[in-house]
Amino acid sequence: MEIRGDVIFEDVVIVPLQKMIKKRAAALLARAFVEDSEVITIIRKPRRVRQRILQSHYSILISSFLRYNASACVLAGGELVGVMLVCAPGEEPIGVKELARFFLRMLLQLNPGSFRRGWVSAQDDEHHRPCEPHYYLSTLGIEPKRQGNGIGSVLLKYLIERADKENTAIYLSSTNPKALPLYERFGFNTISITSPLGVPNHHMVRNGIK
Predict the structure, then answer these.
(1) Domain ranges, residue 158
(2) Phi, psi for residue 38 in degrees, rounded to 5
(3) Residue 140 within any structural domain of the chain
(4) Environment class of residue 9 by beta-carbon count within 10 Å: exposed (0-12), middle (13-18) or buried (19+)?
(5) Greater confidence, 92 or 27?
């Protein structure tokens, strides 16, 4: 089945998140975040095991985000190179059914310490979301070999254009210091920095157009 989307430049196309690329998207996000400092802190396992657990986690998360049309992917030459999981105002990042599946699978895959650390991290993020309506950029992952090629910018521009049309803020959090200049370049400001697991987590907001 052909995947259709908006051509950005040359062979780069942005498409909605969809079920037919769910498996590839989960694998990409696992590769993108397997060396993330907070992930390593939460899942204290060898890289191969950590990546397998992450792929399982993202498979469930993507299933929840499939219902939301703000999420998107980037294809370059037909290859999936970027994934963005987003909730619009009034939408929740994970539904009750997916939450139950997530907890059951994580309990089977993680030891109690890893499970507790993951919960602490998730709650830290949730507690710093703005009170006003906002887009929640839950996850932005780029294929490691394509990082630095502008794929992240393509996805951010796509989301910002939508949010600005609605004069709505965007919230995200990042434990990756290398990503902060990119977010700042697109108008995100750090509203707080926390480190519940010892890894600095930047909570950032880009306000809507006034």
Answers:
(1) 6-206
(2) -70, -35
(3) yes
(4) exposed
(5) 27
Which pair of tokens denotes residue 57?
């986690």
For residue 105, the Cα-to-chain-centroid distance in whole angstroms is: 20
pLDDT tens for residues 129-143?
988 999 999 999 999
Average pLDDT over residues 83-108: 76
pLDDT at position 10, please? 60
Sheet bearing 189-194, strands edge to edge: 6-9, 12-16, 72-76, 79-87, 134-142, 169-174, 201-206, 189-194
The 8-class DSSP code of residue 67 comes to T
CATH of the domain at 117: 3.40.630.30
CB count within 10 Å of CB 151 equals: 23
**Token pair for residue 10?**
């040359």
Mean pLDDT calculated for residue range 163-185:
95
Task: Domain count for the chain, please give it.
Answer: 1
- Whether the pLDDT of residue 7 is over 70: the answer is no
d(CA 89, CA 112) in angstroms, rounded, equals 33
Distance CA 68, CA 28 (A): 19
